[in-house]
Amino acid sequence: MPDSKEVNLISVDAENDLSSTSNSFDNGNDMDALGNDVVLDKKMFLINDAIDEIGFTWYQFKIFCLAGFGYSADSQLTLIPSTVQSFVQLQYNKEFPVSTEIAYAGLFAGALLWGISADLIGRRFAFNSSLFLGALFSFVVGGTSSYPMYQVFNFLSNLALGGNLALDISVYLEFLPFKHQWTTTLMAFWWGVGQTVCVLIAWAFLPKYSCSSADDCPSSSNRGWRYVWYVNSAIMMAGALARFFLVKLEETPKFLVSNNRDEDAVACLHRIATKYNRPCSLTLEQLTECGTIKSNKSFNYTWKGGIQLMNHHFALLFPNKVSSWSTFLNFFSWFGIGITYGLFSNFLPYFLSSRGAQTSNGSVYQTYRDNTIANFVCLFGPIIAAGLIFIPKVGRRGTMAIGGILSMIFLFCYTTVRTEPQNVAFSSITYLCIYVYYGCLYAYTPEVMPSAARGTGASVAMVFNRLAGLIVPLIAYYGDTSSSVPIWVCGTFIGVIGLLAITFPFEPTTMRSV
After folding, report:
1. Structure pTM?
2. Are residues 170 and 122 in contact, defined by beta-carbon separation less than 8 angstroms?
3. What is the pLDDT of residues 133-143, one digit of tens each?
4. Domains detected in the chain
């Protein structure tokens, strides 16, 4: 494991005061590790001190809720296409199911578009716009009158919201005091909320307002899938409007400093401190004395300049061997969990059916009831993960290892399911373990990315996750859904990335993100 002095995060004892923290910075060990921009490292340290001095306020709590709502919206939009797919096929008499693949293609492109743009034009614009546009296009999906139009707006809605997940955690993290950094793990709780809400809505509408056969399926008798889109879109739009009108989001001070806007960063922090009657001793002179950063040099506002700046941000993710190893493990882990989750949620029912497992009476009502139970249980995964990270010598890495290994065990045991109660029990506990890992990975990734390229790093991680979603149908097809090959792939991936978590070079439980 790499020496702790090599990390590009600033080590800090949660019980030390600001003065002792500053003394620990003076030894230079942490600055040397960044290997990219010592001046920016110094400025980030001062910004972190100021945020710690202000502490956790209602402003951070509001961002926690609004960013969490983005998590919820992302999980809703990811789940809707597969949830209503069979009923859309009945509506338009199409046998080839492409809705899920189209959705993942949109999420893939959206992660690149919004995540990278957040490092170019700012966190605030991308944070607010992505959710609003995603909700708007989702409304249109529910009202489409042809299958091609349905797929076009399905793609656009996912394109709009595709990078939201990376932006949510980045925005929240960059305003967060160190002592409350653990709440980034807890935030994944909102993902489970979105899934549960989506399945509940499907359970409410699909059994009552859906056709059972394509032979007699007029639109008037098959409006359930439209209601699912409309209601979920309305919930997403409520969250989007709350971002515009209920909270005036400040541009994150770390983004401002990374773009040579020191004066704006200081003003931002002082506005928050003044509003909530908190101290903030940071001055513009302190940042100026650090020198001039070299991380974000001046680039021309042209296509060529934009591409150069994107390449520059990507290079910031690989400044040295230790950080490069961390970035590689992050990307591979997102790919691995994408394979695991996709196979688990889409493939296992076919496997059980081929083995004669009587896990359902075949009714739409029971199917969505069982899914609701399993998705509700997964809410507690991130809560358990948030508790595990406080156990000495466990932290983020140990929590991911525990979640990954337990997920592997229960996935392999899942093949013994033969009855409906067993199916509900095993699917619930498997979801729970996967979300222990998933919730911690969500928080860990932006924590170990440099702020100047945090949007880019988190978005590329999402791209690997979406790429895995596109590959899952191929694995299921060529692995044969009646064989055990896909389930071994599924369990092996989650086990491997769980073990790899132990080798991650950084442990944010005792370090501040830069």
Report:
1. 0.80
2. no
3. 999 999 999 99
4. 58-250+315-512 (1.20.1250.20)
